[in-house]
């Protein structure tokens, strides 16, 4: 088993999970991961929650892709925040029957982060400590990836994640406003409202390409909820109720407010032209 927040399930996380799978296979055990919802940092700073690379569902989807046998989700609340290091170890051994734990060098746990590797080593479980994963001289971390995405550095963030940044959700009915101005969109119901990036992007959607707007649509009165809308190029099929993944390839511009729908329509035309040029240049 390994334990952590795993926001983004980046290359550092993947190294831990790969070791968990390897050891589980060697020992004839199930591979497992414990993660938390909400993120403990969000719980302790609920007035200023941090952005999230991935929603809980997206994390579980990534664990499934990595073929982890079991995912245990702990609801992080006031009661759990008071659990001591010894109580947490007892849960691992007595309830979850953990035989070996795979952790990073700086792993801490328990109320006030009181527990550490020394306490785990005295528990009777086998402790498998993995070194930090670096790209060049930079340690891979969820914080660094959030910062890269917030600063529109998709290419560097993707290196740390080991895959292109994406968001997933179910295609739902919208207000059909895009269709009215000649650019029908697929509206994706996303499970979190604090992604680290916003704006207009060239994207891949299933096996198709398009232009996505991730934001609050400031040109539409009364809108303040984060939405992900994708206009697909050369596509007209029905996608409603499908669970899909949108891969963000390049940022085209920031979201901005337009004086009229006609002005918005002209900007979308420019966005589509810019996206097509990008796809052609990348030979996509």
- Tell me about the biggest sheet? 6 strands, antiparallel, barrel
Mean pLDDT: 90
Work out the strand percent: 25-35%
Number of strands: 13
Instruction: Please give the order of strands in the largest beta sheet.
Output: 8-9-12-11-10-13
Residue share in helix: 25-40%
- Global structural class: alpha+beta
CATH superfamily of the largest domain: HUPs
CATH class of the largest domain: Alpha Beta
Q: How many structural domains in the coordinates?
A: 2
CATH architecture of the largest domain: 3-Layer(aba) Sandwich
Structure summary:
This protein is of the alpha+beta class and 284 residues long. The chain has helices at residues 11-27, 40-44, 56-65, 78-81, 85-95, 117-121, 142-150, 154-161, 177-180, 261-281, and strands spanning 2-3, 32-37, 70-75, 100-104, 126-130, 134-135, 138-139, 166-172, 186-190, 199-205, 208-215, 227-232, 243-253.
Provide tags for this entry.
elongated; 25% strand; 13 strands; three-stranded parallel β-sheet; 284 residues; six-stranded antiparallel beta barrel; 33% helix; 2 domains; alpha+beta; Elongation Factor Tu (Ef-tu), domain 3; Rossmann fold; 10 helices
